[in-house]
Amino acid sequence: MIRESHMQRYPKPCSIVFSIVLFAASCSVAAFAQKRGFQPEDVYLLQQIADPQVSPDGKTVAYTVTQIDKARNRRQSSIWLVPVDGSAPPRKMTSGNSARNPRWGPNGTLAFIADALEPPADAPQAPEQTNRPETWPPARPEPANPRTQVYALDPGGGKPTRITNFKDGVSRFNWSPDGTRLACVVKTADHTPDSDSKHYKSTVYKFDGQGWADTRHNHIFLVEVKSGKPTQLTGDPMHDDNDPQWSPDGKWISYRSTNSSPELTTVLGVDDVFLLPVSGGAPQPLAQGRMYASDPRWSPDGKWIAFAAAPSVEEQAQLWVLPAQGGTPRLGTELDLFPSSITWSKDGQVWFTALERGAQPLFRADPQTGKTLRVLAGNRFVNNVELDDKQRRIVFVASSSEHPAELFSADFDGKNQKQLTHHNQALVEQIATRPATAFSYTSVDGLTIDAFLIKPVNFQPGKKYPLVLNIHGGPNGMWGYGWCSDCQMYAGQGWAVLLVNPRGSSGYGMKFQRAVALEWGGKAYQDIMNGVETALAQNPWIDKDRLGVTGISYGGFMTNWIVTQTDKFKAAIPISGISDFVSLEGTRDGAFGHSRDFGGDLWQAFDHYWKYSPVRLASKVTTPVLLLHGEADYRVPASQAEEYFRALKHFGKTAELVLFPREPHSPGAYEPKHQVEHLQ
What we know:
This protein is mainly beta. It contains 10 helices and 42 strands.
């Protein structure tokens, strides 16, 4: 879907809804297996593991660890190293301001993006006589106003050395195959405005998490590692370029580009994949006619490019392979799933992860036949996959419903799995968690619907417990076996948690995902409510008189909608939710983005947009509602919460509104103090 001080002038979110009989269970939870339940403040202790990168010799993994600096109210990322074989504990390589995007040069130099850095006090010191590669950059003065730049670091230790010096910093980069150049993504100004007014000619002029657009766009630059000299490769003012990937021979760069031209009437699916000659020349589009194109990745022999894209705006993204010198893309897998973490092994196999029925396995596909195998499966989420061809090992990040993410490795056949990091061990040793247990039922029109139930941490047979229905976003999200802080927090309070994957969810194929069209408040609503009835019937220990409902984004919409349809729930907390599709279409960042689900744009299907707008039925609500929303939410503007709140108050309903200053659409991106307050 990160900044400074704690707000004081808004009411506490727990003031009214949590005083209702629904949540009469004490917040003081009895010990479960000598541990306490997960609490909102525990997010300060969580450490997020991401972006593993294997060194050229196949022996070391560089990765990032992100945790909260409570005193500074910000998230801090650092670069760590650990042996692929797990023979030694991880060691921290950076400190100071955040560092991310670690990338190994072909000669073993480690580069990354950061502000000005110092090595941690306990980092190893490089010997005085280091055989640094010829391309090791000489020291250069720091920029007057440093933004995020690329730094290089001798893995043996020492102080990082800056390579780039862009006024507005670098957001992403990759090494050339010979280690002499970097392909960097840099924001550039297309012109210097004479005033601070904003003049737009395109539908694309704001984006959640970034705000209203300025005159800058992402473009790709080449940077000489030795001299730091930059050369701009792309510069179309109507495109934002990202994710540059070098061809194995170093002559081409593939990248993803987002169109923002004035003639756009919708921002839905406007990404394409381009191929650019490094020596100069016009970019060549590779995925024309396909929507949501992303993640271009070269085969080791340079003959093919794999990428994700949808055949049309009405469909979900799939895995495609394309001849690098031009031709027609073809499907690279027999699976009807949405690919991510796309990469190649040297034997010409395409590896990718995909959501599948509550889990996220790792797959290996033969792009010539489409035949696909599950390599890493089980009740967990696998992501951030990196292949070590030399050692024939897979490095990946994985989490389960009971354990936050850590770094692992395994053989190419999925065997001999080994946990490489234990960054969250201290937290796990303190808290009690509960697994997600799956069950299925049949929808009104014959679809199989999966749901997951998490018991309270203090569960005792013979007792009754409240239940929280938690609805995912999307609608093409998916609940399952991954770590969910919110869910474990509810369980830690002594409540059961119900997670349903209604039609529209990912992980069940394109037909299931697209079955949500015209059914946001219809059969999708019925799918969810049938899950509630099934859970109550199968688990008599759930107290049917103490049911609550919440959800974020699409889940926030569905929460708003549910309380207009039933009085089954004693409390509702819509988060970043839609209440009025008519006003939303002209104010959100994704202009007219509901056409594929609502049978046309606002003018073509006005009655349908208004039919499923919860604000239309505000007079029918009897459930107390607490609306939580970020003031800087551009995906679902805060005016959506305002409309619903005012409508509910107009009809004399019990409602409260909490707005979080400066915050975007996803509460996971809130500044830490707001995130904790939001959970409280």
